[in-house]
Amino acid sequence: MKIFIYIVILFYISTFQGDVYGKGSSKIKHYTDSSLNQEEIVFSDQVYRETIKTVELYRSGWPLSFPYRNLRDTTTLVLEFDDLTGQPENFTYTLIHCNSVWEPTDMPESGFLDGLSEAEIRDYRFSRNTLQPYVHYSLAIPNPDIGFKISGNYLLFVYEDHDREKPVLTRRFCIIEPKVGIRADVHRTDNLNFLESKQEIDFSVEYSRVPADNPARDFTVTILQNFGWNTAVTGLKPRYIHPELLIYDYEEENLFPGGSEFRHFDTKSLRFNSDRVAGIRFEKPIRHVDLKTDHPRDLNSYEYEQDLNGMYLVKWDDASDSDTEADYVMVHFTLQVPAALDSDEVYLYGGLTDRSIGPLSRMSYDPVVREYSLDLLLKQGYYNYSYWVTGPGLDPVYPNPVEGSFFETENDYCIFVYYRDIRERFDRLVGLQTVSSSKSSGN
Fold first, then answer.
1. How does pLDDT run across 201-210, given as a tens digit for each residue?
2. Is 200 in the same domain as 133?
3. Structural domain count, the chain
């Protein structure tokens, strides 16, 4: 029986369309009961309530990790978030199995869930000595209530009071059953048109342990740059097929703009201005942090800067427990440009905005001071960010007129290998390999 999920979206996040860029978040037609109209629901990393902040999903013990685990190991995935209402609420969650392009799998919950179909989030703690009160929630999966039976893509769906029409947040994660070997290499592209600006990901898949009758049909591959689903290269098929080995060596389909290293700021301490902070002030009821004004980078020169590839780390230097003692501050971003970028739009991009392109991350332009600006309420910590420029239809402008694009930039790439047996109704995730452009490796 097909799973029905009733979600009313509070804001719309557009996704990229096309043969290469275009599977960042899946939009599917969803039919509700006769009292509601047909809705579009988006299976992606989203927050549906303004009071929900600092949502993280990671491998236990490693806050800066991509949310995945092997089907049979003992690793747990940890969800953490804050509710700024300051009062505990009854939050419920479930897991939804998805295919390789993040559409719900057409199979009963009993086919992929081990245990209950939904459960409550019971672990919460109150903030301590903060100007902004909040309740900090955490959840580990799998747990005695809910687990998973099969590999693949999953959506963690949190809602209020056992009512799926009251969405709180959604987060994507992956469960792997490693059956293939992936050897990958990231290097400067050989394509002369993009020699200075793009990176090429060549790889091969050894599949002797998978009973694939038709490898070109049975396998599909997705590549992510810096864990960003909205620029994923999806649906890759092998260019060459050998006995037990698939070769993915393309000229253009496997290229990514190198971009630039992410910018950063540090609010782990509010006693002094860090290198990217211009000033700290108190305006009742919270503190405000003014970052130094950013400027477009030299589009002809690459600059190295060690970064977290867009991620962030919650931390207060003086806290014994940053989860409940770190405070929230209003961070003010400014980007000074000679003139507005024609019809293009500018967004703040990174983990601090869920790597989303939407109303909450869009910057506004003031022609008087010639600046784009945006204010975000963020928990104390160390943050990476960049400026994303889009053209008509929210397609990324290339090359980025603010950040530029360089083949030398250090980026992380994730290669996902999915397999579908024609006798089954779902996509298995049979391999995942992470490789850095500065240190390629394979196994």
1. 999 999 999 9
2. no
3. 3
